[in-house]
Amino acid sequence: MSADAYPGTQAVQRAVTVLKAFTDAQPELGLSALARVVGLNKATTYRLLTALEREGLIARTGTREQYRLGPELIALGVRAMRSSDVRAVSRPELETLARATGETATLEVLADGDVLILDEVMGSHLVSATHWVGTRWHAYATSTGKAMLAFLPNAQLRDALPTRLALSGRGTRTRADFYKELEKIRAQGFATNVEELETGFAAVGAPIFNHDAQVIAAISIGGPRTRFTDKVIKQLAPRVKQAAARISQQLGFRP
Q1: In this predicted model, which residue has the larger pLDDT, 230 or 166?
Q2: Which among 103, 174, 176, 116 has a CA at the least distance from the CA of 142?
Q3: Is the pLDDT of residue 237 over 60?
Q4: What domains does the chain contain, in order, with CATH numbers?
Q5: Exposure string (b/e) for 44-72, b if CB count within 10 Å is 16 or more?
Q6: Residue 225 CB-half CA count within 13 A
Q7: Rounded to an integer, what distance in angstroms lies between the CA atom of residue 76 and that of residue 175?
Q8: Does the pLDDT of residue 1 top 70, yes or no?
């Protein structure tokens, strides 16, 4: 039986579409703009907004002419993060990495071809990498993303990659070239990002596996390229790889 055969499924799907319409670039939307984004008429969009507002999932701004995500979503997000085994297990390793290296350590997962920051521990340097939990980046341009993509089944890998692999200030790269790098990552067990995501930024990441030997997350440490020289990256890579291996082991992974 298809999902559409269940009563109320369409309303739920539409409500989720409304919630996902709010982004970092557009944190607030009016009724007309939101209706255009989600592809529904204004009357239907208004009914959905009213129901979501009643549950605290949507809130109106002070002028009441704009809508934004509501406080109940924050509470749900916090509970979701607390229930994540990989986040709980990874946290001590992130703290150890950040303390030992002075650099920012992150835990990230794949989300529709992007990486999503699930947790972060800031470094001690005055100039450090600063991201936010919930931030998303193109997976192919990050050390964590490449570390996870390298261990995906071929079909999932193809679906996770966009047609055009654009790099920050460095043009594009071909899929064939990217696949060669993934082979290297599989062999060495870690990945690097040297100014691919952002000019002046570098990072090294390693994959995390669950008890079924499936890649489910990755950790990384990153910072300014001025500190992350090739020599430093080479020194940090084993430390990140070992931390990821310990997390995997606690999650039941056995090589």
Answers
A1: 230
A2: 116
A3: yes
A4: 3-76 (1.10.10.10), 84-250 (3.30.450.40)
A5: ebeebbeebeeeebbbeeeeeebbebbee
A6: 11
A7: 38
A8: no
